[in-house]
User: Fold this.
Amino acid sequence: MSVDTSDLVLVQRVQRGDKTAFDLLVRKYQHKVVKLVTRYLRNPADAEDVAQEAFIKAYRAMPQFRGDSAFYTWLYRIAINTAKNAIVSRDRNPVEFDLDMQAIEESQSMQARLADTTTPESLLQTEEIRTTVNQAIDALPEDLRTAIVLRELEGLSYEDIALAMECPVGTVRSRIFRAREAIDRRLSEVFEGGLGRAEELG
Amino acid sequence: MNQQEHSSQLSALFDNELSPDQAELVIRRALKDPAMRTSWGRYALIGACVRGEPLAGRLRPESDVAARVRIRLAVESSRAAGQAAMRDDIRPRTGTALLARGAMAMAIAASVAAVSLFLIRAQGPQAGTMIAQSTVLQPASQPATAASAASVDAPGPQALAAAASAPPSYTTPVDDSPVGQRLDGRMVNYVVAHSEVSSSAVRFSPLSTVMNSSEDFTQDTVEMTAAEIGAYR
Amino acid sequence: MIRIAQRLSLGRLLVCAAVLAMAELSLAGNDDPRHWIARMNEALATRNYDGVFVHRVASTRETLRIIHRVKDGRMSERLVSTDGSGREFVRNGAEWVAYFPDRKVAIAEQRNRPSGFIAALNGLSSETEDFYEIRYVERQRLQGVNTRVITVRPRDGLRYGYRFWIDEKTGMPYRTQLETAANDVIEEISFISLTLPATIDAELLKLAVDATGSRWLRRDAPSSSGAVRITFQPRAELLPAGFRVTVANPPIGSTGGPRTRFIISDGLAWVSVFVETTTPVAQKNGHSKPPRPDGLVQMGASAAYTVRTEGHRITAIGEVPPATVKAIAESLRPE
Assistant:
């Protein structure tokens, strides 16, 4: 389908004051907007800040959105403008203090916690997420893998995927859904298993 | 329709493969179901991974861009119950999608935990109107302030259900500093006292360090009386 | 003219001088760094502003929104974290409240210094210029805004300097860096968006976070009674060049906790010194032990150095190089 049905319905709800509907739009497009803005602000943290600003601006400007263009096209323009206006250019990063390099005598502060009683929260790295997803995809049965790749990488509609895979549209829909479920199961382990892994580290 | 079927519909909705009527139904469910919203977000994440795109929440997924936007929208416009007001400068726009015409404060019966408020706030000469919504948790024993809202239109139950959203959850910043640089209680006190004279580029900078530390920064404080609290709320 | 000057407060005099200076000099050709510092100070003191900035120090960064209003001579400000903690700081005149919704705690206290969160650079004088060099660097376009880059560079390694990108139209510092004498950046604030509205709705300055169920705490101003007389004094000849005691026993710090005993400054950099008594150290052979240093702690841009000597614990803390807080902590001697 060329019509962004989900976007249209969500936009209408946002215009009636539904923030949760906006949350769904943000969740859907946040990675795309970050990717877009990264072209202007290479530092990923800056790109995220600007992406956040762009979404806030979009929310506030939502009453003015008339559906003349697709929602993403409109959002895209807001994101580019926000990126261009961002008064950020990172030519120098703040220094990290390296105690070893100090010319003066140093010692630990008087109550330094050498053995921390609380387990530090695990920080999930982007690469870990990516690796998990890619491994999960590799582990999929071939028909599920083909379906999800044709959808996400090639952007084909269900109808076109059905033609390519020579199966009914309903089967395409089911395969994509099951692929997502399988990957999501792996992701859940990573996102929610942080505590377990930290305990391993002792 | 079982759970699997519902979820598969969400997946199809994400790919814009549902009819508008079907989409409407699934969205209505998703707006009430946080687990569905999480799945929705994961679908986007999966797509970004497949395409090798950057992810919008590099270090901590729970504080990704969506989470920050969520908190910011919830917090920026929330006001305590009873402060909803009708503003004269609301100019309904012709030709645009539906806008709520007046401020609507809907008080749910005292036994219900959530109160939803619709507020309209003028945003300044250039911006026109903005619709804001917040959910304020009220303890069951405290009746929501409805008196000031009695005269305004109440939204229908559908809009209300759609508007109810989970209260924002806040994440405590993680203290990333090396162990030798973690603050102890005494140092926290010093930093707080010093921040008043600090000349740092941003005056609160030493405080910011304290606030981001997981140390206890409530030392040397006394509990306020209810009367004192009232002056601030 | 003198009578008028006496009646005007210093702050307003500065503003008048700045306005006159602006009227005299053409905008484009002005490369006097003091003019730009004055414009910046004026903007920070008199304008309303609402913006989002990124604060970076060491390896941390945070993004905050600041709303600042000056109305009828009273300054109100609100700082909101946009990073997920929901933390807010609200200032109304001398009243200051910090909210921590993630911990369900709110702390209120009085803060007497009138400056806002983003500090103006007051204190430039012929004396401070002995230790800092003020320079106009260049006109620089910073993503669509014309700014003037001004530096206040330390002449030695005992203090930090500043670098400002000042909007030539509004005087607002779009970017500020705290840097070492070697031009390494310690700390930075940089605006992502900034507007200067003529009026700011009072609603924007009110706490937005839901404080229901939070503990409300108050940090008291210290009472003057019960202050223990501290027998240590900084020795002027031992203080780093340019630094001197500006205030002794100032009325800040909390009742129950350690009191600020001295504020030591060179005009731009400020160091607080705390002195506490500790359990007397057992003395062997009647000799007092040499000071046992407890060492250096670096917290963002702030360095703290603690020394224990003769039953006292002395801590100096400030946004200065570690060697400076060390020297200041060690400059205290018994009377």
Observations:
- The helical segments of chain C are 2-7, 10-24, 33-46, 322-329.
- The first strand of chain C starts at residue 49 and ends at 57.
- Chain C touches chain A through 38 residues (CB under 8 Å).
